[in-house]
Amino acid sequence: MKKIFFLVSIFFISCTGQIDPIIDDSFPIPPELIGKWKIVEIYETNGVCVYPCWRDYISNNKYHVRFKEDNTYETIDGDPTCLTGTYTVSKDNLLKYSSSCGGEQEVYIELLQNDSLIIDLKIFEPHKLKYVKISE
Fold first, then answer.
1. To bridge 36 with a disulfide, which of 24, 27, 63, 113 should be the other Cys (CB 3.0-4.6 Å)?
2. Cβ-contact 34, 126 below 8 angstroms
3. What confidence tens digit (pLDDT) does each residue in 84-102 have?
């Protein structure tokens, strides 16, 4: 009985120092994503298009979203208490973000280049946003 107790004790002692790795399904931030982005076109069905089509988006804003290297973002539109948050990018090109006021959303990155970004909002009807990069 003492041998069993001794072996079990050694087993528990050897396991207590073990730290399980944190599972993280996000990848490093694509460097092309970092910077300020402005919406220039919207893909949707509206009164002009019977089927989904791209239409110009006119805005006086200098930019709409800024992605930072530290996995944070800021926007200039919307509720003043929800203009910042955090984000991750997964291996499946999913951009997951959480706002400072608690809202979470997931969108699909359809295209990401140095100067252009298209995201699919993944809602019932086709709805995509085309951005151009304003600055790094």
1. 63
2. no
3. 999 999 989 999 989 888 8
